[in-house]
Amino acid sequence: MIDKRKILLFILISVILLALPKSLFAKSGDAGAAGAYLRMGVGARALGMGGSYIAVADDVYATYWNPAGLVQIKSRQFGSMYAIMSCDRRYSFLNYAQPFGKDWAGGISWIGFGIDDIEERDSSGNLTGELKDSENSLYLSGAREISPSLSLGANLKYLTHQLAGKSATGFGFDIGGLFKPNFTNLDLSLGFVLQDIGSSLKWNTASGHKDEFPLNIKLGGAIKLLKEKLLLACDLKKNETQAMKIHIYSS
Asked: CA nearest 53: which of 195, 172, 158?
């Protein structure tokens, strides 16, 4: 028998989402910022859900979306992705994660983004050679189940960037949380992520220029209805350089 309360809750959430003001959506023309490739997303399932994955994050790709979700995996998992994008850009992802005992889980991930054969020209427009642009990030992830309803996780990231014979290195952090209320009979999950806390790259140039990554704040909710036949997920994402974005998924 269908629970009428769940149906009413689903309708209420849908109405609220449809009524959200347009100001919540990203404006066209939002400018980019350092480390943009780290905000592109990974994993076919998560990307197919439009990025509404902060409160789901129940597989190996949790290392990227919400490290706290790693405690939901029950065995060793591998993940990978490779994409050839416009302008011959390449985007790669590879990771591994596993549980450690009852309450802990961890993983390691690599994200790579780059392009070769960029024409180098002098001030007169004459071809002088070719350039290469390569960006990489290595993640070390850990998560712990604090209680049956709460887990916390974090990423430590080592960042590198090579461009035109110059290089930059730096570090960054992510923290995440996943909360599953036990005071309701609903299958509800709530999540948050603070991405790129203090992330930066320092170049080996005479000026010692440093690229600062914008802090990215993500909030998410997910609920399973109709005996887990229906999943409704919604994420809100905001960073320091762009307008707020909303991602909604139902299946």
From this structure: 195
Strand partners, 233: 222, 249
Rounded CA-CA distance 39/125 in Å is 34
Q: Please tell me the distance from the alpha carbon of residue 100 to that of residue 76, in angstroms, as a whole number.
A: 10
Tell me the C-alpha distance between 28 and 235, whole Å: 19
User: Interior CA angle at 77 toward 72 and 83, to 5°?
Assistant: 110
Alpha helices by DSSP H, 159-208: none
Token pair listed for 185 = 């009979």
Contact present, 152 and 134 (Cβ < 8 Å): no
Quote the CA–CA distance of 194 and 75 in Å, as a whole number: 26
Which phi and psi angles does 234 have, rounded to 5°? -145, 130
Residue 187's SS3 state is strand
Phi first, then psi, for residue 23 (nearest 5°) are -65, -15
Q: What is the mean pLDDT of the chain?
A: 85
CA gyration radius, the chain: 20
Choose among 108, 105, 128, 116: nearest CA to 178.
105
pLDDT digits (tens, 9 = 90+) for 130-153: 778 899 999 999 999 999 899 999
Q: How far apart are CA 192 and CA 215, in angstroms?
A: 13
Model confidence at 21, in pLDDT bands (50, 70, 90)?
Answer: very low
Nearest to 112 by CA among 132, 136, 95, 133: 136
